Every structure is written in structure tokens, then in C-alpha cells.
């Protein structure tokens, strides 16, 4: 009979945590045995679990048995070596250990005084990471800017858009909100549109400029200049530009230097979203893709995507921290303290949307220390080489084509329709995606570029090796053969 579990008892924690670590280690040991994409039907879990919580405590083993038999079948296994969808969301031993330690300490670090180490470590590790990326000095804590960990890139774009909004409204008056215009491309993450919705920017004033294959789906500076000139001429106020390094659809890279100069000359806040591809820029040979970042007001990358740091950990740097603080700070009586009142410390509650925040810098610190810069660079390069390998496999099969230029570790490709009918081609590739994912052997995702339904193969899971890429290609070839044979 298990002893009743107390809320926090050191010896019970030791005993149960050992069992949990064993369970997680066994999960990773056998992760290739699971269908990558969950094969359950909607509502499956409701049929398997009781309709109310138990009155009496149950044992951990019973719960773990249910996880194995009822929960894991409904999990899509993002850490599987056969996961090639969307973009990666990396786990690692270092990231997991940092997450475990953060959960163990379990503090709520909204201001410096609530846990000085949490605030100060975050400042330090984001300076470390900023230096690895060779960000301009203005983004580091030694100047007027600095870094902060947000939950996601969506939160990052929201907080800087709010700062940009309030900065311009202080100048032109708060009644001018309806005149504010934000710019991105039709490849910019939908987080920009959501940020505009939350910030009160009129939906029709969120300009998504058209891109095409002639510029590899990057924003055209000329098109941006035209849009800004037109908006100014009709009395609108351009205030925010979001450029992307590594778009979601195809890893397009916007021309930062040219865009930054346009933004600066028009008094527009310039944000660079490098959520996925920013990780690659710690490698000297890929740093060129953020050339021009010196023109930006803010820069963001997700350490939880491709940087071995468990979700969530989105690094945001700003050149002017006061712009964030002026927009997002509150100072109720119950939060006042000597250090904050004397402006001696950073209070990260004023750099984000919520008040509460976890000790996320611990896991990033442990990743940087336990792997080191050189190993992290090798990790990124290995995935890029695996993507090059997959790209070569696609190019070697005349039934397929590579659709967009591969820069990092995403390959965009499609199965060519035998009759050159594009409508048929879209259905053919949709069917290929469904067929491949339904095998449970791999998971890939799709996009649409220039009206064409495109398959995306993103390499980046921590356990992926060349053999997994080879096996994935065989699944795609076999399913393509079956589809073409049925025509």
C-alpha cells in the first residue's frame, strides 16, 4: 500500500521523481515505436477517463499506467526522430534538467525582489546569447536596451508592437489609434495580425505586402516604400514594420538593411522576427542572414525551436527598454519595494504581458553551459546537412521538384502532376501528405506558395539521423507511387 502523497515531502519527492525520470527515459528510448502523428479520433479521451475527479488519492503507478495506455496514444511526438513538420521544438537533457530545477524551486519572478537570481541570470544569459549572435551593443544590458525571455514569438511581437503604438500615440495623440498602420509581408507570421487585433490597430491597417518567387518570397523594399507613401498621402500613420529571417512557409529572409533604412527614415519601429532561423545565426557562416539587424529596434529568436531549450523560451532584445516599460508597467502598492523604487534593478513584469513569470533562464543557462557554443553550432550544422541530403534525394527523383531555395534545414517540395494541371497537382500533394502522415512513420506539414500546395520537410528533432531522413524519403516515394499508379 503506497503512503499517502503529501504536498511536499523531500523523501517522497525523491522516490516519485526517480520513477518519473525512469518513465520519461523509457519514453525516449522507445519513442520511435509510436506513430509520430497521433492517430486518434476527436473526443477519444472523453470515453476513456471518468467524468469526475477521484475522491480518494490514487497511486503514481496507476497514473503512469494510464499515461501509457490512454494519454500517449493521443500525443503527437514532437521529439520523434521522424518528426519533420512545422518547425522543431527541441528538448534536450540540459533543457529538461533546467526545467526540472525551475519547477523544483517554483518561484514567481515578476520583480527583482521576488528572486534576485532569476532576474540577474536572465540578464546575463541573454547577454551571452546576444554576443553569440553578434547583436549590436545597443541590444545588450550594458546600454539602454536589453533582453527578456517571453513565452513565444507571438508574445514578443505583441509587446514590441504595443511599445511602438504607445510611443507614436504619445507624439500624435491617443485619438489617432485608428490611423496607425503596421506592415509585414504575406509570409509574415499570423502573430502580427493577432498583435494588431489585441493592440486595437484596425484590421484593414495591417498591411501584408505581396511576395513572389522572383524575390524568393522576401519583402520588396520598393513595394514597402510605395505602401508607406500611399498611406501617408491619405493621412494614415505608419508605425510598425515586422521583417522575418526564416519565414514559416519557406524560410524566406527579408532584406533587413534596406527595410531598416526605410523604417528609420519614416519613424517606424522595426522588428525582426528570427524565431526559427535565429538559432542558425550563431554559426559564423549563417550570421550574414541577420546583417542589417543594427537598424532594428527589436529582435527575437526562439531558443525553444532549434536550440535544445525546452518549450517555452523565446528571447527578445530591444534597443530601448524604456519604450517597453512605459507601455507595460504598473506599480500597485503591494508590489512597491526599495530596490524598485530606487530604479536600481530590472523588474521584468514591466517587459511582458502577464505579471507572473517562471525561472526560464535556468534552462537556457544550463543548455549554454552543458553543451557549449561549439557543440551547439555542430548541432545546427548537422540538421542543415541532413536537409541538404534530403534536398538531393528529392532532386534525384524526376517525379518531384524542390520549390523554394533551401537556406537552413527546411526543404519545400512537391510531387509533379503528370498532366501539368495545377489544380490536380494541389490535390495530388494534399493526398500525398495525408497518405504519408497516416502511415504513422513520419509527420510532415504543408504550405501554399504562389497558389501551389507545397510539402514542407523540416529537419530539427534532436534524435534525427541520416537513416531517419532516408526512411522518410522512402515513405514519400512509396506513397507517391501508389497515388500515381491509381490515376
Automatic annotation (TrEMBL):
PROSITE patterns: DDC_GAD_HDC_YDC (PS00392). Signal peptide: none annotated. Its cofactor is pyridoxal 5'-phosphate. InterPro entries: Aromatic_deC (IPR010977), PyrdxlP-dep_de-COase (IPR002129), PyrdxlP-dep_Trfase (IPR015424), PyrdxlP-dep_Trfase_major (IPR015421), PyrdxlP-dep_Trfase_small (IPR015422), Pyridoxal-P_BS (IPR021115). Keywords: Decarboxylase, Lyase, Pyridoxal phosphate. Pfam families: Pyridoxal_deC. PANTHER family: GROUP II PYRIDOXAL-5-PHOSPHATE DECARBOXYLASE (PTHR11999), MIP05841P (PTHR11999:SF70). Belongs to the group II decarboxylase family. This is Tyrosine decarboxylase.
